[in-house]
């Protein structure tokens, strides 16, 4: 009887096993892109969103760096979640994230030294990025590897979307370029739009313009989805 009970329970468990891309799992990726965006809704990781968005190249590299760190950290913490004593969980999370950030920093210095200099201390500050520590504490510690992986992907992409959109407008209207490629023409030689009297907007190269663009992003987001508007 005991063996039959075990077999029945195993069959039941197989039947009830959640599909890899169930509706619940898909929401782990889609929610951070809009309804629960870590930057515009949760207001996390806002410092780097304001500081490293002057050029798209730096914003993309920063986004990939955060994606790598959050993905690997979520997976690592999820795997160790039953082994980490509650009283030292924050220390363990910091050690995991710090190790991953050191890897990112060294890779950037080896292969993208100029971008590494542009990002400056903000690569190191990934260690204390609220998005990463928040997802580890709120999600990875209580969930299995696959949901934690999807959660990391969703929040990283949601973070990247804001950085890329803001850096797109800042670099385009601030210097007339995208990824360093001249779009509006050459300002020094007076070609393209510059020949018609166009001038770069210097404000777009300063941090305050990032606040303005993030505010516009939030406004558009809430206009598209009125349920995000707080009524009280």
What is the averaged pLDDT score?
A: 83
| Count of the separate structural domains | 1
> What general outline do the C-alpha atoms trace?
globular
- Roughly what fraction of the amino acids lie in strands? under 5%
Please work out how many helical segments DSSP would assign: 9
Oligomer: single chain
Tell me the strand order in the biggest sheet.
1-2
The topology string of helices and strands comes to HHHHHHHHEEH
Counted beta strands: 2
Ends apart, CA distance between termini = 59 Å
The unreliable regions are: 6-11
Rg calc: 22 Å
What is the structural class? mainly alpha
Largest sheet: 2 strands, antiparallel
Estimated helix fraction: 55-70%
Summary, kept brief:
The protein is an all-alpha fold and 232 residues long.
Protein model, in words:
This protein has helices spanning about 1-15, 25-30, 45-50, 55-80, 90-110, 115-120, 130-140, 145-175, 205-225; strands at about 175-180, 180. A two-stranded antiparallel sheet has the order 1-2. The chain has one domain. The chain contains nine helices and two strands, in the order H-H-H-H-H-H-H-H-E-E-H. Helix 4 runs antiparallel to helix 5 (about 90-110) and helix 5 packs across helix 7 (about 130-140). The protein has about 230 residues and is an all-alpha fold. Strand 1 (about 175-180) and strand 2 (about 180) form a beta hairpin. About 60% of the residues lie in helices and about 0% in strands.
């Amino acid at each position: 009887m005991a063996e039959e009970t075990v077999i029945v329970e195993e069959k039941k468990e197989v039947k009830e096993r959640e599909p890899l891309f169930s509706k619940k799992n898909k929401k782990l990726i889609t929610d951070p892109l809009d309804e629960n965006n870590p930057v515009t809704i949760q207001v996390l990781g806002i410092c780097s969103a304001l500081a490293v968005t002057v050029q798209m190249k730096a914003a993309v590299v920063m986004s990939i760096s955060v994606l790598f760190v959050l993905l690997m950290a979520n997976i690592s913490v999820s795997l160790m979640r039953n082994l980490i004593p509650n009283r030292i969980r924050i220390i363990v999370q910091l050690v995991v994230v710090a190790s991953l950030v050191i890897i990112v920093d060294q890779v950037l210095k080896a292969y993208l030294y100029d971008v590494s200099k542009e990002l400056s201390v903000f690569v190191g500050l990934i260690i204390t990025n609220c998005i990463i520590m928040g997802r580890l504490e709120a999600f990875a510690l209580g969930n299995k590897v696959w949901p934690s992986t999807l959660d990391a992907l969703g929040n990283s992409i949601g973070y990247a979307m804001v950085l890329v959109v803001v850096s797109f407008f800042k670099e385009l209207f601030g210097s007339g370029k995208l990824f360093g490629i001249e779009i509006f023409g050459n300002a020094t030689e007076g070609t393209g739009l510059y020949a018609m009297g166009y001038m770069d907007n210097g404000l777009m190269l300063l941090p305050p313009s990032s606040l303005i663009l993030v505010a516009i992003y939030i406004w558009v987001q809430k206009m598209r989805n009125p349920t995000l508007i707080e009524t009280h």
